[in-house]
Sequence to fold (281 residues):
Amino acid sequence: MLKSVMNTAVLVISSAVTPTLAISASFAPPSHARLVADAAAAIRDGQLHRAPGFASPSLVAELRREVARLAESEAFRLGTSHRGNGDVDDMRRALTCTPDLASDSFSSVLARLSHLGNDLGDALGRRHASGIESAYVAYPPGGYYRRHRDSVVGVDVRGSGRRSTSFILYLTDPDLPWSRADGGALRIFSSTATAQAPAPAPAPPAAAAAARASEDEWDEDEEEKDEKDEDVSAAVPGGVAEDVLPESGLLVIFDSKSLWHEVLPTSRHRLCLVGWFLHEA
Fold:
């Protein structure tokens, strides 16, 4: 059931973090100006931008501790999405939670991301609202998120339709590097029909086994959250452009309305902060 999955995730997160807050001398986050320029260029070209090291190992550890506290208080809920008729679908298996706005570690990240959102909106000629929409997302073994876009033009204009630019900050264990065999990659689909792309690969055996084993762990009657309408049967131009491993501290940024993507089945606990810079209302 959901609670047992949450408890397992709590144990994994709690045991994986390190107590030190010292920032490694080799830590070199991207400069703000370079990040804005590079992300804007990638979005204009219909691509995803990667910013390795956006969060230092010590900040990731702080955020993971915060997530463990939230999970212990049963703040996580089963993430859901809905079909056009309002029925819950099987688009994803993941747990979601609203960040604690009073947390010092989250406040630090929020300030940086809000600054980024404002300047990125200016660089793209978009009027981004102040603040961001965000959530922690935890994928237990067997978790996934099928192909989708984060926002659709003309749909839910006061909710997900306001999403302009998406970001994901990966909070995986910095002491346990992620490998392709672990599954859980963010798969990006090309926005052009002529792109040369690798053929889609099946889920790694461990991830596929975890997905089958997790079937009985999920209670579809858990509390639901409002999500976007999405037509996942719509044609996706191009093929698979790239698979992005959820490396600890990595920030990825992409256009919310144009870039199709999915999370492949994972065989490890996969934690991230997801969010969106919003169009002004």
User: Anything to note?
Assistant: The first strand starts at residue 49 and ends at 51. The chain is about 25% helix and 20% strand. The longest helix spans residues 104-124.
